[in-house]
Design brief:
Elements: H1 9-22, E1 27-31, H2 32-35, H3 47-66, E2 70-74, H4 80-90, E3 98-100, H5 104-110, H6 115-120, E4 142-144, H7 151-161
Parallel strand pairs: 1-2, 3-4
Length: 164
């Protein structure tokens, strides 16, 4: 899942994992915020660091896939180059790009961590959507606007995209 901070990636990941679990499907969530406290804690938010972040996450996802686990990766991944790298590492047959297309205005309205306020005041540099670009996916497997769709509808569309 890719999209702006506050778009609903983490919320949808948890709901999707619950649905997969109900079907006895092994799954794991790789959440960008969580990974940056461990596996990727040495990385900043420069373009090069963002690419390395995605590379690491894709390598972990590939290993989990090989063990029969459905991986739900919830990352901003603002650059097409990053997402293409992940698709290449994981393999096109095991990769579904889900664009959480919630508008910047809605993400700022939610601002669950107060990050947009800090970015707008200059406290956070290179913040995606404010002072750093977000390249909208050109042809995602599924596009979901959580400002319009409810969680259940989004999960239903994600399950369809995963062919469940």
């Amino acid at each position: 899942m890719t999209g702006l901070s506050g778009a609903g990636k983490s919320t949808l990941s948890i709901a999707l994992q619950q649905q997969l679990s109900a079907l006895k499907c092994r799954s794991s969530i790789l959440d960008g915020d969580v990974l940056r406290t461990g596996l990727c804690r040495d990385l900043g938010f420069s373009k090069a660091d963002r690419i390395e972040n995605i590379r690491r996450v894709a390598e972990v996802a590939k290993l989990l896939n090989q063990a029969g686990v459905v991986v739900i990766a919830a990352l901003i991944a603002p650059y097409e180059e990053q997402r293409a790298l992940a698709r290449h590492i994981i393999g096109i047959d095991n990769f579904v790009e889900a664009y959480i297309s919630t508008s910047l205005e809605e993400c700022e309205r939610r601002d669950p961590k107060g990050l947009y306020v800090k970015a707008r005041s200059g406290e956070i540099a290179e913040f995606t959507g404010v002072s750093s670009p977000y390249e909208v996916p050109l042809s995602p497997g599924v596009s979901l606007d959580t400002g319009v769709l409810g969680i259940d509808d989004c999960v239903q569309q994600l399950m369809a995209a995963l062919h469940f």
